[in-house]
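Recall the central idea of this unit: under ordinary conditions, the amino acid sequence of a chain determines the structure it adopts. In this exercise we apply that idea directly, starting from the sequence alone.
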Amino acid sequence: MSRAAQSIFYAVAFGLLGLAIGGACGSLLTRRALQAEDRAHPCISGPWGHVRCLDSIIEAPEGSIRVASLPTNATSWFMDVLSPLALKQKLRGCNLAEEQVAALQGWAAPAPQGGGFILQPPDEFVIGLAPRDRASLYSLLACYTQNVAHVVPFRFDLETQKDWFEGAQLDAGAEALVRQLVYRQGNMRLFSDLPLVLRRYADPVVYASLFRALSREATVLACLRVGPDDRLKGLANYWGWPDREESVFTLLKTAQLASGGADVPLALLLPPFVRDRLGQYPTSADPEFSSCHYTCLNFFSTQPDLRFTNLAEVARSLRQDYLEVTDPAYQLGDIILFEKKGEGVVHTCNYIADKLVFTKNGGSLVRPWLLAQLDDLVGFYSYPKPVTLKVLRRRDLLKHARAAP
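Accordingly, the structure predicted from this sequence is:
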């Protein structure tokens, strides 16, 4: 994440919550175990072997969220335009009805700090927006960093789970209102109106349960299938690089000696930093802001390097210690940069196998470490502007592949 994105992400609702540190293992929501052949799907085989995945969802542990205050501030949207005419043209560009444009202009006032306008529509107007109008208008609002809830909305991938709130213990009225306020961009469902809902349901219990459900993230449960005829040295070389080949080989051999082979959870094959955090939420042992960059640069660490909580140190390390690679034979732990035009790097994650990556989607205490499909993550971050990808490899870990010129 860029510095601006970090400050936005950290200041939004997470600043209004405390995470009860302790049992920080998230709940994995799946209907069947990983052995369910009808839902498990394989990765493309490669030097990593035969990996099988099961789509799932992770949410914060029950009781982990303590409410410090309820964010019930009135709706306030910022538009960085120079004149009422420019404001009108921007709103018309969202394909709103003329009466909607006129109403929004009537609720607009010059921003107190100078430059731009503040729009304060009543709740009835916001609730009454059609899904298509909401998506178009909120996409415009997301272009201005002052609209924190639109720049960094709650998001949910439609391809992973069809119902965002399945199994959540929510107040029926609050859930119905949230569903009415959800909007869609591509395969993502988005939500940006938490304070509006809480003005009608100003209950800390409602807030905690709703926030927990809204914070659900798509993840992947994965295992390596080790068969009787698999060549273990090659697999150990992939998963154990650069200094764990022997211990990984022993683990794989144990699985192979089982009758017919066995499935090995991917977490057991990954470096200590990853293994200790996968499927977990930050605890008191983790730094206050455990960002995606901190995560990526510590992938191979035995003890995490706290220098990588500093963005200047992150930039220095990426510049001096890494090379861009273009050969598609990516290695375990390669760093994938997500970049946006005009914003620079907005996210980083680590390559695992095929299109599987290790990621932490933000530095907040209520963002877990998890496995995800790269395509899903690209969709997650391609709002409101698309991302481009670049792959980096540590200079001292150049096992194979050419560096980009």
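The first strand starts at residue 17 and ends at 19.
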